[in-house]
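Much of the work behind modern protein science is quiet bookkeeping, done one molecule at a time. Below is the pair of lines this work produces for a single protein:

***
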Amino acid sequence: MVEIAESLFLSKEILSSNGKPTSRKQIACIFELMFNASFRDIYKRTDDIYKRKPFNLTKALNALRFLPSKESRKLDEF
């Protein structure tokens, strides 16, 4: 979830009521409410992402990206 929240923050596509891009903290708070979860310190969590090896920065997003094609292949087998 942190990877998705960080990606939305970096995209600058989510705007606050004043028309400016939403802060990382605001996006994190919305995710916490939507998913009944806690990031605790969103800044530490995003630092953890950037400390990963470069080829592994988006490991959760990569896994999610391949799920639809994997499911499609399974359906084609029937």
In short: The longest helix spans residues 59-76. The mean pLDDT is 90. The radius of gyration is 16 Å.
